[in-house]
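Predicting holo structure, flavin-adenine dinucleotide bound.
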Amino acid sequence: MPEGGTPHSVVIGAGIVGACTALALLREGHRVTILEPGPPGGEQAASYGNGCWLSPMSVIPPAVPGLWRKVPGFLADPLGPLAIRWSYLPRVLPWLARYLLSGWTEARVARTAVALRALLRDAPALHADLAEAAGVGGLIERRGLMYVYPDRAAFEAEAMSWRIRRQVGIDWIELSAEELHQREPALDRRYGFAALVEEGGHCRDPGAYVAALVALAEAEGARRVAAPATGFRIEGGRLRAVRTDAGEIAADRAVISAGARSKALAAAAGDRLPLETERGYHAMIADPGTGPRTPLMPSDGKMSITWTDRGLRCAGQVEIAGLDAAPNWQRADILRDHLMRSFPALPRDLPAERVRVWMGHRPSTPDGLPCIGPARATPDIVHAFGHGHVGLVAGPRTGRLVAQLLAGRPPELDPRPYDPRRFG
Ligand SMILES: Cc1cc2nc3c(=O)[nH]c(=O)nc-3n(C[C@H](O)[C@H](O)[C@H](O)COP(=O)(O)OP(=O)(O)OC[C@H]3O[C@@H](n4cnc5c(N)ncnc54)[C@H](O)[C@@H]3O)c2cc1C
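Done. Tokens:
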């Protein structure tokens, strides 16, 4: 980069993380190229099909104390809410061991929660600002998010999670059966208790939102190249170019934000990082006619139910089976059936064209925290992936943090908990 010149940054991958990072870099004065082989916000990205939740309270990592006792069940039941394919077990064992250890004690979970809270705080407001700037302000709604339970005892069975949420500054309103059904008249009567988190929000169409953010970045001067990154040319500890399957792109800086497909690129930048895919599914009913007023998550299904501009979406499930195995659509059927049971007035015998299903890849580290920080081979490359279950909500602050790190400015939050070097 010429002394005092404008740095050229290549952002690899245009899911929510890459889109937010590209915008933050433009605002930092960088020249930006976005490398994305697919349509931005398209079905190939986790950012397309997720649960739409902008949930600053999603601070509890997936692994919690005692989870190890359930591992035999994860292997035995291929259709359980968390399933591990036998054939993939040998490959995933080291990741799985770290995953279980990271949530071994309440103190460890609480430490992760503090780090996640710093990344997620105020996220709905940050999303609202970005969406407004992109001309799609209506896609972000801030009317709270709700966890629903059969009864108070079921809520109290999750006491540790709620205790930790309270410790990191999250508030909620507890609703009795009567209050819940006044708010949600269409919800099945088997639910009799809820915790409403008013600071939560949701996105009415994450795919369209990401596409709008990328379009905004292009309008602000970013160039988009439809090719996959394959590696880097690094000389004397400085980045010279990003390699793609359509040739090299000269670059001063690069950001690896290719979601679950970031692992090989991280290795090309000198880091062997434990990134896995936690595959998830959605089922969506077009023109459902009924549903929740506030997005909600029934405790017995562990899936989110949210109105979107494309229909009523039910998203969830965790399947550990790698990037390449074919989807198991029975899992999406389970989501659809649970949705039907949660809202009994939903139409039965729906024609196939009114039910859409999708499978995507959560980019997951074993400790439930993303990798955000410089690569070993050169500080010109910054990792920005591994957001697991919270990548949508975490996008804006991740983008800002990456831009601040690349600009050498004091970051707005302590980046150490996300430092990829924590994995040795
Ligand atoms: C079922 C489900 C429900 C979820 N619910 C929520 C939720 O409610 N709230 C929430 O916050 N999070 C949720 N998540 C998680 C969230 O969707 C992800 O963490 C987030 O979308 C990850 O964003 P990303 O930009 O890192 O990756 P992605 O969105 O996957 O984007 C990565 C992009 O990189 C591109 N790419 C891949 N390889 C290359 C390459 N070599 N070169 C260039 N580009 C490349 C891909 O084409 C893709 O477009 C959910 C996930 C799933 C699966």
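The first strand starts at residue 8 and ends at 12.
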